[in-house]
Design goal:
Blueprint lengths: L1 H28 L6 H4 L2
Length: about 40
């Protein structure tokens, strides 16, 4: 019984980690252009 509960908790934590990492990757891919004012020296 305890093994089954531990296995379900581990599965849920793993799934949560995958969802959080994959949603963070979307922001990494979509990088806006830097405004010209910031590029001037």
């Amino acid at each position: 019984m305890k093994k089954a509960i531990a296995k379900r908790i581990a599965t849920l934590l793993g799934l949560t980690a995958v969802v959080l990492v994959s949603t963070a990757s979307v922001f990494f891919v979509n990088q806006p252009k830097v405004p010209q004012e910031l590029l001037r020296k």
